[in-house]
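Subject: for your reference before the review

Hello V.,

The reviewers asked for a structural picture of the protein, and I figured it would be easier to keep everything in one thread rather than splitting it across files. Below is the amino acid sequence we used in the manuscript, unchanged from the supplementary table.
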Amino acid sequence: MASTSDIRNGLCIKYNNDIYKIIEFLHVKPGKGPAFVRTKLKSLTTGKVLDNTFSAGHKIEDVRVETHKFQYLYPEGDLFHFMHAETYEQISLQRDILDAPDLLKEGEMVMVIINTETDAPLSVDMPASVVLEVTYAEPGVKGNTATNATKPAKVETGASVNVPLFINEGDKIKIDTATGSYVERVKE
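And here is what came back from the structure prediction:
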């Protein structure tokens, strides 16, 4: 058992007969009344995100998890196949467990969180950003840059990302996996 003082990002807890991962938290100490912790929880079985408030000192049941490095191999319908980096054991995960399946490139290394009690994979942590090649982008119109104008572009994994007008086909761009948004152009 843990208490609200042990809450941190990435902690997996049992709550309402489900396993949740804490995405965000904020300790709040109002001027009047008891302290509390405002959290954003993501269900590791359904993927739903909910907001919850725990009073200070509230006991929470944490789940023992291990993280292992896996390499993404290939997709097959709604299944994504991964290989353990050390044991070469392969696992298949459903699409809904992944946060950003459209940004996964074959050969990408990810961290898989596994429940130690049941040996079941709970979630996949993507790297903070990925570098992908633009396969299709419409040409930018000159003089159309009064503000931060963007255009849709397709990347090599098939995902669509809004990019600045100066990005062309063949450019490599860095994409933030948490938001799925363009970060910068990568020079090689």
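For the response letter, the relevant points are probably these. The chain has no helices and 16 strands. The longest strand covers residues 65-76.

Happy to draft the paragraph if you're swamped.

O.
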